[in-house]
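If you are new to this repository, start here. Below is one unmodified record pulled from the training split, so you can see the exact layout before writing a loader.
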Amino acid sequence: MPGITRNGVRIDDSFAEAFPMRGTALLITGPNRKWARQAAVTMTGFATSVIGCGVEAGIDVEVDPRDTPDGRPGVRVLVFAMSSTELQNQITNRVGQCVLTSPGSACFADLKAPDELKVGDLLRYFGDGWQISKKFGDRHFWRIPVMDGEFLCEATTSFTKGAVGGGNLLICGADYESTLRAAEAAKEAMDKVKGAIMPFPGGIVRSGSKVGSRYKVLHASTNDAFCPTLRGQVATSLDDDLNCVLEIVIDGLTEAAVADAMRAGLAAIVKLGAKRGARRVSAGNYGGKLGPFHFHLKELAP
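And here is the target side for that same chain:
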C-alpha cells in the first residue's frame, strides 16, 4: 500500500478505525506508591478487550501526593465499556474486589462529565450499617470500616459517552527483536499522553484480530493477513522483508487523546528508524464500516 517514508520507516496510506465507548476515570490512593499502584494494577487486570473481558482498562498516570485529595501517592486508572450498564457493573465489581480489599487504599472520582456511575453508593453496604456518609463541599464520600481502619470512597464518579476505543498501530519489522524494540519505544512515548491507555499486556498485543471466523461461535479470529507464517496461504498484507508484527491498541477519553497517543507512537518509531526498529507501520480498519472515527497515519506522522 503506497504511503510515505520517514527515516527509512514506511508508513502506509491507511487509517485506524475506532468506535464510540463509555469511559470513566478513578484516582486510587494508598499509603505509599507501591500500594497505590498495586491496587490500580489489580483493578485493571483481565481488561484487555471487550471481546472477552467485557471492559478495557489500564493505568493512565501516576499522581503526585501534592495533587491528590488526601495528600498520598495516587494512580489514575481509565475504564472503558460498550454500554453504561456494563461500565457500572465492572466498576462496582473491580473497585469492590480490588481496591476496597487493598491495604490502606482510597478511591476518588477523577473525571468531570454529565453522567454518573455509583461507586461508594453501592459499596457502602459492605459496612453492614457502620458506614458513615461525609460531605466536603459538593463532594460526597462514604467511610466504610475495614480491618486496617476505613476505606474512603467517593459516592459517585462521572463517565463520558464521548470516549473512543480501537485506535491502533500495526508495527511491522524484519525480526522479533527489532519489532519489539519499536513497539516498546512507541508504548513509552504513548504513556506520556494523558487520557489514553493501551489495555493489552505491557501495552502491546501480538494476536491482532479480524472480525469474524470460520467457526460460528467466534466473533473474532487471527488477523491472517498480517501473520508471517501464513504467507503463501492467504492474501497477505506483508512485504517480503517483514517477518514480525506487533500491535498497539489505544482507548481514550476523547478523540483527541487517541490521536495524540498515535502521533506520539509514530514519532517514536520514526525516531528509532528502520535500521534498529520497524520497517513499516500500518493500521487496522474495516473500510470505514465499523466505526466513525478514522485516524489517518499520514496525517499523524512526523
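Two things worth knowing about this chain: The helical segments are 33-43, 84-99, 120-123, 176-190, 255-272, 297-300. The longest strand covers residues 156-173.
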